[in-house]
Amino acid sequence: MCKLEWFRRRRKSTSKSRTVFANQGPACLMNDGEEMEHFCSNAIISARYTWLNFVPKNLFEQFHNMANIFFATITVPYAFAEAATSVWSNLGPLIAILAMTMIKDGIEDILRHRRDRKVNHRLVQTLKVNAAGTTLEWVVKRAMDLRVGDVICCERDQSFPCDLVVLASSNTSTEINVTTMNLDGESNIKRYYAVSSTQPAYLKLAPDRFHKSLTNGSHPLQKLIKSLYVRVECEQPNADLTKFEGRLSTKYVQDIPLNASNVALRGAKLRNTDVMLGMVVYTGEETKLSLNGKKSARKYTTRESKSNVILLSFIVSMVSLAVILTIVFTLWTRKTKNTIWYVPTSPQTSWQFIQNLFRFVFILNYLIPISIVITIELQQLMLAFLISQDMKMYLESEDLCAKANSSQLADELGQVEFLFSDKTGTLTRNAMRLCLCGILESEKVYTFRPLSATASSTSTDVCAFETGWDQESNSSQSDASDSFRNKSTRQTNRQWLIPDANDTLLEEFLTTSALCHTLDVANSEIAGEYKSGRNEISLRQIPIYEASSPDEKALVEGAAQNGVVFVGVEPVEDSISTKRYKIEYRNDGSTNDNAAEQKNYLVDAVLEFTSERKRMTVMVRYPDGTFHIHSKGAESTMLTPEVTTSGGLRTQAIKYVTDFAVEGYRTLVFSSRQLEEAEYRKLLTDLHKASGLVGSERATAMQNAYAAIEANLSPKFVTAVEDQLQPGVKECLKNLREAGIQVWILTGDKEETAITVSQAAGHFTQQMSLLRLTHCPDFETAACMVFEQLEGCGGEPIGLVIDGKTLGFMLQPSLREAFLDLCMNVTTVLCCRMTPLQKASIVQLVQFGLSVNSIGGGGPPVTAAVGDGGNDVAMILQASVGVGIYGKEGLEAARAADYSIPQFRHLTRLFLLHGHWSYHRISFTMNLFYFKCTALVTTQIMLNFYGGFSQTVSYSSLMFALFNLTMTSVTCLLYGIFEQHLPENALLARPYLYRLISQQANLKLWYVMIWIVEGVWHGIITFIMTFFALGGGFYAPASFYDNGLSSRATYDLYFLGTANFIFLWISVSVRILTLSRCINTGVLIGYGITLLNFVLFYPDQPAAFVGLFLSPAFWFTLLLTVVMANMPGLIWRILSDAWWTVQIKLSKISSKRMRQKLLRSFRVWVSAIIWGDRDLTTSDIKEDE
Known about the structure:
The chain is of the alpha+beta class. The protein has four domains: 20-292, Calcium-transporting ATPase, cytoplasmic transduction domain A; 372-378 and 914-1132, no CATH class; 409-430 and 726-904, Rossmann fold, CATH 3.40.50.1000; 431-450 and 497-521 and 543-588 and 596-723, Calcium-transporting ATPase, cytoplasmic domain N (3-Layer(aba) Sandwich). The two termini are 66 Å apart. Residues 32-76 form the P-type ATPase N-terminal domain.
């Protein structure tokens, strides 16, 4: 790095602010002493390697594996001692494995580079002014080439490629509408504003007006360019999404204050605004979205950590055995040197002792499975492919399927202990729906079906709201929304009514809903694009609404579905505040009736929602000349005695609110009153006078005016709105809980919304009491609350609710441990109003806070995170396993995640099926490697025991290499790809079975030791049968003779060694076959391919092979050896099948004590052995349901 660049970065890191000039100055307009600073690139990089660092970085990652470190180290002693085997028997396989893994990782990273390229090469219109200020034009740049200071143009529905200061908007009010769901999870539209001082100059240069401005003689080029000078001084990049401080200066105005409402952030989308011009202020890794994320890095699984521990134990055991054998050899030579002529009589030196130690290490190093790494890597690739090809995780309506972006974490899917889930777009579909309306005067409750359920069957009219529901309902009957299905049943029981077109009170409610809101109607071009994109032909359609509140949008859409359609707003001449609301009344609630009647209502004032008032109000003049005030809001403010005039209606409203809330709906209360014209005019005049004041006087006057307008209202209606859950969410959460996975919801949404969705999804049950740690003003208050709650935690189910502000205090070092203890003592946790970085902090808190107390051996718990937006990327990267859902606002989460799925419900198959299978396959593959390597080394230990510990081997170096590379690894690989120890229907119907493999159950010490003991058994049996049954004992003449050989012919060491090798190979292969429960054509072909190894090592010992294959003794001993060696494995297989059968039967018993009692029952085990069946029939599953 050059000194100048280093100095610039150093200055940037120490300065508290940065200065940015629009259009890079230009130089001709910059004042003396002003110069452009240099900032980071706007390139987005999720790839892990570059062409320069790929080889060293990949090798560094591969040598995190203990086996690779060992085999690289073991090659060094070959230079100091003459070995019985060649150095290439170790070095050759190591190089092959490193190369294959490197190729696999390289291909994966190339795919990441391609995904990055797609984002970075997005084309952006950029305003270009040359340094001399003589030319002005719009050019197209790639997003990665944008620099701080560039002025770019964004059009409707485009996402912002970087953080921008808004300079101009196509709206004359300087307002732009933006959705930030990709940042904070909120789906509502937010309002941002262009700087009023830059709006006129830059709006003239918008691409659609550019040519006209340049050809207009009243705007000479030099004057236009001079008006483009903008200097922004702002804070250095930070991760706070809600904070921005700076000031803007032009040639004419100085130090205009800037705040967060003037900045559009990367990841957000422009809505309901045709064009926006903005100046780039933060790029690339300095954008707020990137600062709230984490850089992609290779994830190391708990299985890898466990494997390293096991391999380290093997290495320690190997060295210990080598030391023991060397000492025994030294003692043996001292004892026998005078009786055996070929034993050296000279004293052994220290260096000779070390050389003997090395020779034993060379023999025993085959205890370490060198090919285990590449075998598991290949298994992971195949398992990732099988996940991606699972058609039951395919969403036909959106043409989306599951995808494995990482091939290294398949087994970790079967070990998840904590799941951290986003809410908006992950649990919900981002589609509010009006479900119920209680009319207080008539005491009637109407239930509103989706449009597809109420519209005429011959209608071709489809709106956006209808389409989303129809796609869901038509795809599969089981895909219907859980909440709608369950609630519709209860609605029938309560005898709630279908809307009646002749009910004037219902029409009054629909009219009020169409008037009392602040939403806008998307223009006709956008609506036309939406409809034509679905090949729909319609005479009249419900408009597409853009709303800052999803509840408001649901109410207006609900009114439109039932024939009262808000079609737009028009300004009123000679009036600044009054707007004309156009409403169509369509006969019988039809959405395509050409005979609709349109009425115009004059809205004179809109009192927007505030968190203090918790309501919004409109003052409306009706077409019939009457004057009305309509208000809607939370029952806590709408039904107070000070506001409400009717006690009876208030009581009825409270009843409806309670009933609807029990059903899990979001409730709102509508109140109205009709006024005389004089009173109406007086209230409106007072409001206008108050708005003209300034300072504290204005605030007081506005508060009084609002109170007067919203006083003496009469409750009219109570509504119930549902934030529709994605299909299968409740069942999926239930299955995950039964599987022992703790689910925490982390969302940036509001507290009440988050609680409502949690209750609807079943995350919070009706029996659960809520513990709220919200709105803590300072650290001391937060500390008092957490310690008080720790003392009072009992055995009842408790749901903890905490907001982002309070969480900031809880994550302080002095409170972190206490807060985690509290989380572990409650049933479940909901975190709301969280920033993306706080989501990652919660995941990190659980990972590191529980690592010491983890049951599985001292490591951190396995965590998973699931989300659909850019605000979830940080926690997805932090978690052990990241799962992305294809989001409506972008694919950042799906690209960054290890696995991508179409919907939340697919987690059931991903974890409980693929995760369970994958962990079982890989963990058993590891145990098979430990087993076969132990068996191989045992034969050589036995040989040395009978051979005077002389560091002799009975196999050639090629045989040693092939045994671990191709002769037995292929069968282990096939087992790890196809094995299904339990059928699919059993795993999905019995989520409890997931618990049985959690916390590395198959790699616990006692279980691994069983496999090692079985390996010792195989090694001893194959050796004894070779040297005593076939060889006659102590190299005596064979007990069985070949035809044509004299009685003096004997088998030499190589004959017996080759026979022993074949016995061991076939015995191990049969053991793997008896372990397999899924033997298909691929497995059988794989076993056939392993026979081709004879072609490889036949040239090494041709005489031995010919002599053995012609010997009847060889074939008889082979059969006897294989049967004897595999007898314990066969018994273990029978007991294993019985154990799983028992567990399947016990999994439907909820009582832990009863399960333990039946598990100890001899009759249960006998029944499982005799009649056991691990498959479930359809009747079994229906019985459970």
